[in-house]
Amino acid sequence: RKDKICTGLNDGMHLLYPKILGSQGLILISPTHNYNVTAWMKAFIDRLYCFYDFDDNRPSGWSSRLSGQARKAVLAAVCEQQSKKDMGFTLEAMRLPLEALGYEIIGELAVLAVFNRGKVKEKKEILAKASTLGANLAKSLAR
Q1: How does DSSP assign 26-78, residue by residue?
Q2: Tens of pLDDT along 85-98?
Q3: What is the pLDDT of residues 116-127, one digit of tens each?
Q4: 36: domain range?
């Protein structure tokens, strides 16, 4: 953490850190895997850990270097099942870490009953909701 970015892994995340720092908005979307986000989304969120600063007390106090910057995010999750209960904590698993980092979550979208690749584009109502969320994010960042 001395570098203030994660440098121990060579997975390309170092290419995203400048983009994260340079943008105020973030959109996270994950399919539901076993009531949770995918392993790739979890890894992405875990790699944002480097934006935290900790003190030397135990239990340690912490702060986020991304907080207080009017950062905003939109979240979406896609689930094969028809009940939001079957989505589990997919949205929460994205929301809680982003809020801790200092992002205001301005909207969430739960997409249910979709499994096959590309099927979301056939769901006009879902596409309209996603478009509205994107527009709301853009408006909130323009203020």
Answers
A1: EEEEEE-BTTB--HHHHHHHHGGGGGEEE-SSSSPPEEETTTTS--EEEEEEE
A2: 999 999 999 999 99
A3: 999 999 999 999
A4: 13-142
Is the pTM higher than 0.85? The answer reads yes
Strand pairing category for 62-64 and 72-78: unpaired
Number of residues that this document lists for the chain: 143
Contact 82, 113 (CB under 8 A): yes
Domain count, the chain: 1
Euclidean distance between CA atoms 52 and 54, whole angstroms: 7
Residues 80 and 122: their CA atoms lie apart, in Å, by: 15
Q: Which among 91, 88, 83, 90 has a CA at the least distance from the CA of 133?
A: 91
CATH number at residue 31: 3.40.50.360
